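hi!! sorry for the late reply, been swamped w classes. u asked for the two structures so here they r. pasted raw, havent cleaned anything up. first the sequence of the first protein and right below it the tokens
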Amino acid sequence: MAFSDNHFIRTRPYLYHLTDRNNLDHLRVTSLLMSAAALMRQAKETTYLRSKRQSSIQVTINKRLVSIRDQQPLYAGNVAFQDGYLFEDLIEMLNERVFFWPGRPDGPIDYGQRHFERYMNDHPVILRIKTADLFQCNNSVSPLYCRYNSGSPRCSKGHGSPRGPSTFVKAVDADFTASATVEITFVDQVTLPKRVEISNSTRGPWRLL
């Protein structure tokens, strides 16, 4: 079931990321997408590094306000913890990552579409990036793949969704297919390629960041 990064690029040629409109200036200045943990550490505000965010928070970095989204869909009761993981470990693991939803030119997979719809009333901005471009800009680090919506676990037939050290894996270690991938993540931060498109909708119209 393992696959290669190149196979994933062919299967899901676009990646999508949702961000607060207030974050665009920070993205344009830095050309970086940073994890929640990296943003909190840079702002020297780590209260929520291992604690669930019930609502979005704002931190200040170089006199710019940066918004970090809530974790409301994350419930410990829906998780089957693996290898001694605690809820706080899961929160920190999620905070350490930058997340993308895979898709094609006409939009993300259904999981991503539902995620964007959940925050529609916040009027966020959606980033669309060619998968090949993002991988090339970050070719010194391995993208990690997940078969779940990791931040929104659900019970199935009374069983929680598994979370632990094997939640995010390299392509060669995956026990699922490229087309079954729900999330692509990078630890800490990613460099944005020159061409990044933004829109108010997953369907466009698109304009350059």
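now the second protein. again sequence first, tokens right under
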Amino acid sequence: MAEIKHTSDATFEQDVVTAPRPVIVDFWAPWCGPCKLVAPELEKLAAQYDGVVDIVKVNVDENPVLQRTFNIMSIPTIAFFKGAGAQPVGAVGFQTAEQLESRFALKEIAAAK
């Protein structure tokens, strides 16, 4: 099973910005009900796209710099970082694995590998 890593203000650049693969970032908080619902959806994507796309989580309560940097006003916010220099694509609120797969064009990215 693919690992979903937790990143922080201190490690975000290494884990996401300069990562060798595209990265899905889940901005969440432990008290957020919809965040708890989206977690298993991200686990599905982590398993399906293991080795193609990395998935990391950012607890916004513990990482206020990232929350401000990306102007996170609602959670869950899921952002897709396709590669260096590319603007992230975001989705706010509960999303199914299929919705995220479509929004972030994951099948196309996997096919190109």
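hope this helps!! also noticed smth abt the second:
The chain has one domain: 5-112.
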